[in-house]
Every structure is written in C-alpha cells, then in structure tokens.
Design goal:
This protein is mainly alpha-helical. It contains nine helices and no strands. Helix 3 packs parallel to helix 6, helix 6 crosses helix 7 and helix 7 packs across helix 9. The protein is globular and about 35 Å long.
Length: 201
Amino acid sequence: MNYRQATSRTNHFSSVNQSGNHTSTGQLFQQLFSTYMQPSNNQSLYLNQPSPQQPGFAVGQLPYTHQTTPIPTMNEGDQKTSSFDELIQQAADKFNVDISLIKRVIQAESNFNPNAVSYAGASGLMQLMPATAKGLGVTDLFDPKQNIEGGVKYLKDMLNRYDGNVTLALAAYNAGPGNVDRHNGVPPFEETQKYIKKILG
C-alpha cells in the first residue's frame, strides 16, 4: 500500500470517528494495521522488477531450454597453438568436453596468459575465482595444468546442469549458474552476452 492510500484511509477512519462512531484509539489502530497488511497490487521499487535488456542483443532468443547448442567449428586462425595444447587435450579427454570449446573459452578468458588476473580476482588461463577453484580442488591458480583441469571440470559441470546447452553453460561459466536460473536463461548482462557471442560467434 502506498502513502496516498494510507493517508486516504486514515482520513476516512478519522471522519467516521468524529461523526459519532465511538471507535477507540486501539480499535482504530487495529483497523489501520489490518488494512496496511493486506496485499497490494503495487510493485516494489526494488523487488521483482525485470532487468532491462541491453541493446543490440536479443535476450529473448536465448531461453532456458534443454537443447544442445552446436559448437561452431573454429577457423584455422582461431586454433591458437600454444604450449598448453597437451594439457587442454588431456582435460578434454578426461571430462569429455569439446577441445575447440575449451580453447575458445581460454582465449576469451585470458588470451592464453597463465598469469592473467581480472579486476574481480579471477585468475589463470580459465579465470577461476578463488572460491570456485578451491571447490574444484585447485590449489595453485597459476599452475596451467591445475587451472585448465579445474576450469574444464567446472565447464563440464555447467554443461551437465543445463543438459548440454552450450549457450547456457557459457552464461553460467561467466555470470554464475544462480543468475542463469534467476533469469530463466541468459542474464541480461552486457558482459555475459558479449562473452557468449565472442565464443560462439
């Protein structure tokens, strides 16, 4: 109930009281309190408000579905050869994740820099957050083998969570599964949307 509604109803109760109704102060308070506690159709300024969509990206085209998203074939120029290829292949085989997808994620996350650190504190090749890394058993974020294995394991967890939907798995990898679940699809965060487009094209 908003201020105008409360004021109007208070004035109404006051006029009734002055016109001869012998309602006590306690009864008047009880009536006001009961009225205030009734559900209101007015929306809160801060709760249950839809997040604004970012321009240039149709969030509605990326619903929370259970369809497998095809992984685009990487161009020869995208197939960045690095000293980490063997580690990437090992992790891909261990967790059954497409090696092209892993390479695209690493390129988007750190551009194959094992010492990369984001402003938020994500570190290493696959930009793992310390708390996430700890849960994955990673003790050294800057160890390429540990970072890749932990990152691929987490990516596989997200793929399993969203039934193989690569788009949602990437959104969860970037923004967290809680945000994907909350928005019932790709969150309307510009960073996350650009991240998905960068990887999937």
